Every structure is written in structure tokens, then in C-alpha cells.
Amino acid sequence: MKRSTLSAAAAVLGTSLVLSGCAGPGAEDGGGTGPTGDIAAMAIAKGESGANYTSPEVPVTDASYIVSTDNPFTAYNNVTADANNSYNTFALTKVLSGAHLLDGNNKVLLNKDVMESVDVISKTPQVVSWKIKEGVTWSDGEPWDCDDFHLAWLSQTGKIKNSQGKDIFTAAGTSGYELIGKLQCPTPLEVVATFEDTYPDYKSLFGMSTDLLPAHILEQGTGVADITKVSLTSDKATLNKVAEFWKTKWNGYDAALMPSSGPYKITAFEQNNSVTLERNERWQGMPGGPAKLVLRGISDQVAQAQALENGEVDVNSMAQPDANAAERLRGLRSQGVRFGAANGLGFEHLDLNFKNKWLSDQAVRKAFMQCVNREELTQKLIRPVLETAKPLGSLAFFQGEDGYTDNYAAYQGDAAAAKATLEAAGYTFGADGFATKGGEKVSLKISHTDIPRRKQTVQLIMSQCKPAGLEIIDNTDPNFLDTRVSQGDYDIALFAWSAAPFKSVQKSIYSTGGGQNWSGYANPKVDAAYIRASSELDEDAARRAYAEADKLMAEDNYSLPLYQLPNMWAWKGIDKVYFQSYNGALWNANEWIKTS
């Protein structure tokens, strides 16, 4: 799962979480020049046919579009623990190809621009074959082939440890890759993976999380002659050299180190501001319509709307819903601006750090969850964008999904109940009304990125929890998701998980020692449930195991889900724009056609 400032969704990813809950059917049309009610239809890519996608032929023009989103691009390698977030994916979706991709309804499609086939060739043991289309290259002319798949597996298997027992690659997630016991390259154009246990979400591997990076660049930078000869048991010096390059050399942008395997390539990068994509002339699929795409980070959603109104940008794409921005964009109908809103595959939540001296006490964790009024948060912050929004009662399922149970129904903003919980656990209350123990006041910081809605969330929680005796402090940090969250540097973390439609990646977040379990949470029963769920081909049995883990986590007061995040987007002068919940607005930018 990916943290998105939205996250960090699903999430989720080295490979990332499973959440189905299509955005399309719930889409709202805020008006514009086209026929109303057709926003949901824009979730279907022009190039998709059945379970396949092939880039369609569209008018190729010199058009250049500026697209705004909530935070800027930071890293070409988006599957390290430190870099992993949705805003990198939003830029890389047209730069790094993968075996499968998603349409706006989160339907998994075979990427026929680069793949011949992906087949399960044995069920016991599970063996999967990926066959690459002949002639696919990186933008520097080097082949896109089995070497790149091998590097993706090697870097995300999680089985290569240092002397402290930690993954030397520090991958954001290992789900699925850690189950591959053997990866072979019978030819440069075929990849054969033999799994040690059944893995039904194999389509999530090799590219869904933009994790197929250029192995030849790493070989050149490390002196490793052939990455496919590097195995889990290779000498430590070689493995450390490979890991160090993988972790450190693909941050920001360096043209010499960061070629493209998709229809667009990165040609410019302005730190903390924008990334520029231009057509990849070596792309063997149909060329994209626009000549240039500029993705700009603008953290204030109202400022994004104003930039669209003023003609400074052509598209707004907001993973962070904002009521004021939505109202402003809906008012631009007469200017030909179209507005869309739909439930996405990200959910806002509050993670409680078990390493914190106060939060290690379940009474404090429970009291905090009791005093937070999620209904008030949803009403004030989310319903003005999507009026059907409700508080979310699960970490594993969305409302409407089979298996969904509201495990957090008891937490309805009851400050008196929260105070009673603290009193029963031996806490007393000082003259200022705040809880104390051992002569020390209980004080908790909520850390988050610099997003207006998040600031409003914390302000509301501060007022909700003060009568319960909990001092809540706002800890705003624009770089929180880039650095601190993956280091567990917080009391309470406010962010969102953004997920591709594969549930098994939840395991890296909620299992003991998981690559994205930054709060030190551990429950052997939860671990066992996720092991069963992620290796179970029977959907009903898997669903029951996910539901079991979900219930146990609620009982432990580990993480408080707030609400499913609707995506917002608006545009002018383009025929068909849709915010794909996992990949952002650029997921089909190669298909865009200028209308005015």
C-alpha cells in the first residue's frame, strides 16, 4: 500500500492493498460543456478491450497541459520505504510500464503494449509465466526485459537481511515477492516465478506499483555484470552494493539514470514544484496525444481551483478533497470547466504509535478513539464534496464490499466515556483538565502534512478530546510522509492509505515487523490471519480471514479509520479526464484530445 499525502495508498506498495469499491458508479458531475452524467463513463479507457489494454490511435498534437495535484513528485524509485507515496505514482504512471494496469474503475488490465501474456502454468506449486512483447525498450534504447523483473523481485523479496536482521533494501512492501522462491529467465523475454505458497494476487506484481526499474542502469552504476546472476545468497558485498544503489540513486531526477519504459519520459524536474513529461520517441506503442505534460504540486486545493480558473493550469487532480475548492469549481460551469468527484481507493486514518509511552497503554488508545467524533469530521470535511460519505468502520474493507463490518461503531465522539476510561486506568486530571499520571501530563501530537483539511481535522479533534482530558497538539510537517512516517517518528500519524485492488498487500502494514508497520503493532493472531488470507485461493475463506484480522485490530485500538476519501478533479479543453484513484489524473493522459 502507498501512503498518500493522500496517503501513503493503500495504498500500500512495494505492492499495495486490495480494495475494490469502484469509483465510477458513484461519480458526480459538477457540470460543464459536455453532457451531464457522463463522468462515470470516463473511467473506461479508450484503449481497453475486455481484460486487455493497448494504447489507442489518437490525434498527435503539440499540445502541452499543466496538471495540478496536492503534492510534488520526489522520487523515481517509489518503492523504497522512505519515498513511497501516491504523488510519485501520479507522475510515474505514464513513465514506467508494468505487466498490468488499472482503468478508472480499478479493473485490472493486461498491458498489451509491452506484454504478450501472463499465465498461471502450474497451480501446485503455483508457477506464473510473464512473456514480454518483442522490441520493447527503455528510452535510452536498452531492452526492457527479464533483467528488470529480476531486480524488482530481488529488491522487494524482503529476505536479504543485514546483521540486525533488517531488509537491506528497505522496500516499502514485500507482499507477493517474498513468496517467490525461484525466479528464472528462460529467455530475455520470459519471466517464470515459482511461488513457495499460493498467491492469488500475482497480477499485483511487476509494475502495478511502478516498481520495474532499469536494471541496466544499476548494472552500470555498480559494476555488476548481470543482475540475474545476483541471488538471495550472493556475497554480502555485491548485495549491499546493489541495495545501496537501488535505495539512493533514484531520488529526484537525473536524466542519465532515469529512462522511461512508457509513452512519456521525464525531461525536467523542479524540486518541491513540478515534473515535466514529454513523449518517449522510443515507445513502440501508439504515441500519446499531448506533446508535453507538466505535473505541479499545489498543496492548497483552493489555490489549485483558482489556478484553473485563471488559466494557469488545465487540470486539477485532488486526492485531498476540500469543500471550499469543490464549491468554487462547481461555480465555474459557465467557463466550460467540468468537475468530477468519486469515491477513491484511499482512506484517511489515525495510526497510534505503540512505541509512545502513553499510547503503549491501551486505556489511552481507547480513550482517544472514544473522544474522536468521526461523524462530525465527515459531515464538515467530506460531505460537502461527496454528500453520501459516511465514517469508515474497517481497516480492511470499504462500505459496500463483501466482508465489511463496522468494527468502530462504538466510537462516536463520547468525551465522558473517554474520561471514564482514563479514570478507571488510574489517570487523574490536573487543574487544566488534562489527564496526568506519575506527575506528568498526557500530551499527544498528531503529525501530518501541510494540507488544509488535515489541519482542520486536528483542530476539530483538539476540541473533541479536550473535555475527555487529552491534550492534543497539532504537529504540521510538509515533509512528514517523505521522511518521518516511515521512521515511526510520531505519536499519532494522520494520513491515508492508497491501494491498488489487491488486498494481500495489507499484510505489510498490519503484520508484526511488516515493511510499512511503522507503529510497532504486533498481534500473532493478526499475523496468522493475514498469512491465511493472502495465500487463500478460495475468496470466501480469504474474506473471512481478512475480517478476522480487521476485528482483532479494532479490539487492540491500533488504528482509527476516519472515512473513505473521495477524489476531486476538474478540467477544461480536454475531451475525457478521470481521476484514477491509485494512479491519478495522468493514467490515461496519452489518450487526451484537445477540445478547445
**Care to count the β-strands?**
23
| Residue share in β-strands | 15-25%
Distance between the termini: 38 Å
Q: Which whole number gives the mean pLDDT?
A: 91
What's the Cα radius of gyration? 23 Å
Q: Which bin fits the share of residues in helices?
A: 10-25%
Number of helices: 14
Class derived from helix and strand content: alpha+beta
Shape: globular
Instruction: List low-confidence stretches.
Output: 5-26, 30-37
- Main β-sheet description: 12 strands, mixed
Describe this structure in words.
With 596 residues, the chain is of the alpha+beta class. It contains 14 helices and 23 strands. The chain has helices spanning 86-92, 146-156, 215-222, 236-248, 301-309, 323-330, 362-371, 374-381, 415-424, 452-465, 480-484, 507-510, 524-534, 539-555; strands at 2-4, 28-29, 48-49, 52-53, 64-69, 100-102, 108-111, 115-123, 126-132, 180-187, 190-195, 264-270, 274-279, 292-297, 315-318, 338-352, 428-429, 435-437, 440-441, 443-448, 471-476, 492-498, 559-571. Strands 1, 2, 5, 12, 13, 14, 15, 16, 20, 21, 22 and 23 form a 12-stranded mixed β-sheet that branches. A hairpin with a 2-residue loop joins strand 3 (48-49) and strand 4 (52-53). The longest helix is centred in the C-terminal third of the chain and has 17 residues, at 539-555.
